[in-house]
Amino acid sequence: MYYNFQKDLNEQHLKGLEPISIAKLYVQARLDNKNDVVYALYTNKSGYVQWSKEEDKKIPSSDRGTKEQILKTFANIDKGKFVQSSDFEGYIEYQSIEEAKSKSGFKMIKNDDGIWSVSFQPIQ
């Protein structure tokens, strides 16, 4: 599924996936340095898009984090619990290894076609 999605970036491949599965795809795309896939996983819901794909391409790789930082930030996200806070918003609550005593939140937005996607700047 990840392979098919990264080939054509068609979000229909994501239809029916749980938010945690989408988050895991996002983390994998970040680890793989597939910035086009990362951007395609962001929400396209009107009012929630924070920057364009063209602007995204200008972000230097030094600002995207190292593999070690990404692994540390998103460790345990697969063991998280999805909390839906509205019809189209929610977050994955998980125990970060960076903040041993506190939980992290990974914000998700449901697009108009009913597919969960990653909020821009998802970490809360």
TrEMBL record:
Which superkingdom is the protein from? Bacteria
Name it.
RNA polymerase subunit sigma
